[in-house]
Amino acid sequence: MSLCLMPALSFARSGCVARHCRAAASAIAAGSSLAPGDSSWAAWTDTLKSVEVYGRRPLATRQTLKGAELQALSSTSVADALKYFAGVQIKDYGGLGGLKTVNVRSLGAQHVGVFIDGIRVTNAQNGTVDLGKFSLTTMESVELYNANKLDNCQSASEYASGATVYLRTRLPERDSVSLQLRRASFGTYMAKANVQFARKGWKGFIDAEGLTTKGDYPFRYHSEYEDTTGRRQNSDIDYMRIEGGAARGGFASHIYFYDSERGCPGGIVRRLSDKYVNVGREWDRDFFCQASYMLQAGRHRMKVNAKYTNERLRYCTDYPENQNTARVDNHYRQEDLYAAACYGWMPTAWLSVNASYDMRYSKLGADLKYFETVHRLDQKLVTAVQTNWRGIQAAASVLWQHYKDHTAVAAGAADPIERVTPAVSVGYTIGGVTARAWYKQIFRVPTLNDLYYTQVGNRKLKPEYTKQWNIGIEHHHTHRGWSTGLQADIYINKIENRIVCLPLKGTYSWTMMNYGYTFCRGLNATANVRRTAGEWMFSLLTSLTWQRDLNRTDPENTAVYDKPICYSPTISSGITAIAGWRRLTFTTSWLHVSERMWSYADPEDILEPYDNIDMKLSCLMPLGKGVDMGVTLEVNDVLDMQYEHIPRYPMPGRNYRLTLTVAL
User: Fold this and answer.
1) How far is the C-alpha of 518 from the C-alpha of 496, rounded, in Å?
2) How far apart are CA 109 and CA 162, in angstroms?
3) How many CA atoms lie within 13 A of 436 on its CB side?
């Protein structure tokens, strides 16, 4: 458990009750993470009846899906799960294998940090993470934080994003093996094997998955000037994913490999010849291995992180069928080395101090014309203080970042970037209600594509700054099988020097530029109700987002000034209901997204609002001798609304998935 919302700690009775409870409470107050296997856990485990010690509420705005609720969702990837959170917009570029990125409170995908077991997933080339590559079957929880997650020993990288997504892998309590087969719409077949082990203090898993799909779903595109029906072509994907993890005590490790080939179908564009077909292809090969080690000695805690990443990408449109598309066959190679040293100290029961130094080396090579290999050294240093005294909580951090690039290209590398950014959080808890406020200033450095992409990159780009203000309230209550949670936050975001791509040298020659100032104000709210009664279980999860994200760049340009930012909806909401009885579970979810502008050229250029309803029915049947069989039927987009996240990239309509699982 973390320094944020704590479940009660249960201890067994002995003569050392006061001493153990004081030690546990002090550690929690300072932000310690207690879990079986931690070096400090054994010292706090004796034999007594339930003495409950409650930790403080989170200062950051946090949303969580975990355990049975996470697995009950009609979701297969991390991107599917995040769409249930307030303030999140998913960009999906169509097709079953399309790129999926997440945008939180309209900050942009590059401002969202994604962490697996506390170590960041990075992409120095374009700054985004394709969340469709990560499966939910290996995850214990998915968490979204606005502002900083506050632990008393965490890396500087965890302070360096406008919002953070934390993925925690599930570690087993016993040995098990499971096999899974899936048949789904549009020629989709999937096979998966999962092995879990827990012995001699070690816990771990190996998960392997293969999928193939034609992705040839029907679509209809209707506008004022055209009404087109057809079948999506070149939307196939074949991929293989293998990953595993192992942990013991304070040590944890994770290894991941992903290999895919997919079609890039392009947008639905009506051509006079009716012969235009985009047959672009993309090949991805991603690998990373990471490890961390935590050591606690009294009031001191130390942690080291290490990671190596190797990614290969090939994008090819050099085919005779592509008569109206630039023909390219580009290969990209990216390597990344990361290391961090973190230190946490709790001098008193109400004060903790955290310091961390992170270093990352990135290398990007490509066979583009006039492109030279780019090397980037990224350094981060953070100092943070947290306190909890008589219900008053406060935290402050100062983050230093330094980026330096090297390239042999004649134009030279961009100038080094060095900045210091602060963050402050305060909160007060009384009667189970926590009021909080926080301010965070952060920036994102231009990606290597922004700076060095052939004929587009601009080495004079400045960092993109964000300033965030937030005021919120949170309440949780548990009584006689009922559990309720309420959370609401009002926020303001300002982004300066926004990095955009503009056609400054003609229609076909684009350039990266610092252009724009945006002002966003909004409201996020969530309400959750859970009930257990005998063999019945009910959960109701709701979320609501209202926001106005406005262009405040140029008051003289009345055509766009104070107009909504493209792709930013005013209203988005969701309701998820889960009912379980014995070995049956039924889940239904409804998501609503209001209309969004996608171009300033014409006020009529809007993406229509849509409602998406998914349903899922699961049944677990024991076959005897420790063998269980599970059957799951999913119906997605029940209303068959072929909505769009990106114009002319229609999403699949109603589709089905049937999954069979055998576990022993």
Assistant:
1) 7
2) 10
3) 28
